[in-house]
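Amino acids appear as letters; backbone shape is given numerically. Here is one record.
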Amino acid sequence: MLRNKTRVAGVIWAAMLKLQHLPIRYVFMPLLDEHSSHWLLVCADCALRRFLVYDSLANVKDKSREALIAHAILSIALTLLRSPFCGDALTWEVVRADCPQQQNGYDCGVFVMAFMDLISIRATGWQFTQANVRQFRDKCLLSLVRGRITHFPRTVTG
């Protein structure tokens, strides 16, 4: 099992090779829990030296999701061991982030994209809700059409 995790870390590192000489602030890993068809996000914050788990269905707990999260964190940590800027990521704290929650069973992917965007621009005080999903979908479409990222507003309110 560790051999597979090491291989996954190698794949992640291969994708990051071009950036290895630059300081890294965040590493995002969107995860699909195939057991429940649910997307969630693991974020490594290299500045604060911790892993954050963003789950828009945080009230749902199951062993397969917890195993998936643990596997992702280990894969990222093994990858970050190769970066001179991140220290020993194997010792970092894991935090369940307080984040907006979806009200249905199908918008989890939109929430994950919103989380990544808002984290990357260091937005604070996220107050978005299910009512903002249409706005997020429109921003994603606009980004695809323009060929560049159109960020969500720094402060999103319902």
Notes: The chain has a mean pLDDT of 84. The radius of gyration is 16 Å. The chain has four helices and four strands.
